[in-house]
Q: What sequence folds into this?
């Protein structure tokens, strides 16, 4: 049974583009809360909790080592601004970095503080963030999050375990695992691994998933194998995204130029030989 609020559905599902973001948010929400009978909830609560094979962890550790050789390990510098991270992550969905940054900058310039954003007419917020795309949908998601959290809630997150902090954030409609993990890692330096489209694709190709197919399942595997500190989670995340953008690109991965080729399932399946 789906418990997604029906008034929120009718109020927000206004265009084809909005519907796309909406369906993704529903999926994140349902996976997070387990409010779906069948495959998704099975994946989250059964498959994602199964033991991770030692071989999978060895592969992840080797990828981590090679990423360091390739790109170095960038230093984590938490922003200390959970609201800013939350809003920028919502704005970044289904758009380019440049567009979401422009929208974030416009939002900060238009409103003096987050309280003003929360209390403004949704149309005004939507117009201000229009460069990020899906403006009505994103304005609603931002205002919902701002209404359901306050500064003291966010400040207390660091006193909770990662699991409890994530649960607190994902209890808010429209905030899924990825958004919550971005807030915890980038704003507060807590050890969690956001799984975006690049992390998911590269992890599946190399074989760092232990058979998991969902972002939540992959997050569990990576978290199980990497050292549980914010610095490692951050550096692994940034380096693997860079690898996905520059080498293991979506349409035609550059396997012959890739340092992972001899440990990659995808490469071995297409019978790429190592020089
Ligand atoms: S070998 Fe190919 S598929 Fe594997 S990580 Fe490298 S680019 Fe991606």
A:
């Amino acid at each position: 049974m789906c418990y997604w609020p029906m008034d929120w559905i009718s109020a927000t599902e206004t265009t084809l583009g909005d519907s796309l973001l909406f369906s993704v948010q529903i999926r994140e929400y349902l996976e997070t809360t387990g409010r779906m009978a069948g495959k998704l909830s099975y994946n989250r609560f059964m498959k994602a909790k199964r033991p991770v094979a030692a071989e999978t962890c060895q592969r992840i550790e080797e990828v981590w080592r090679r990423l360091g050789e390739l790109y170095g390990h960038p230093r984590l510098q938490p922003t200390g601004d959970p609201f800013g991270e939350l809003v920028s992550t919502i704005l970044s969905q289904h758009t380019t970095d440049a567009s979401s940054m422009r929208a974030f900058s416009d939002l900060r310039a238009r409103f003096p503080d987050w309280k003003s954003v929360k209390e403004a007419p949704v149309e005004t917020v939507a117009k201000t963030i229009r460069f990020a795309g899906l403006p009505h949908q994103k304005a609603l998601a931002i205002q919902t999050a701002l209404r359901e959290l306050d500064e003291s809630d966010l400040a207390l997150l660091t006193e909770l375990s990662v699991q409890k902090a994530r649960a607190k954030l994902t209890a808010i409609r429209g905030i899924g695992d990825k958004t919550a993990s971005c807030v915890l890692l980038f704003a507060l330096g807590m050890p969690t691994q956001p799984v975006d489209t690049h992390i998911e694709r590269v992890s599946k190709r190399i074989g760092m998933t232990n058979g998991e197919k969902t972002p939540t399942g992959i997050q569990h595997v990576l978290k199980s194998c990497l050292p549980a500190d914010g610095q490692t989670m951050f550096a692994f995340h940034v380096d693997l995204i860079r690898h996905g953008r520059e080498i293991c690109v979506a349409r035609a991965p550059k396997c012959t130029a890739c340092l992972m080729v001899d440990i990659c399932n995808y490469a071995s399946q297409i019978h790429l030989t190592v020089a």
In short: Residues 202, 205-206, 247-248, 253-255, 258, 260-261, 264, 266-267 surround iron/sulfur cluster (CB under 6 Å). The chain has three domains: 6-48, 52-74+194-269, 82-187.
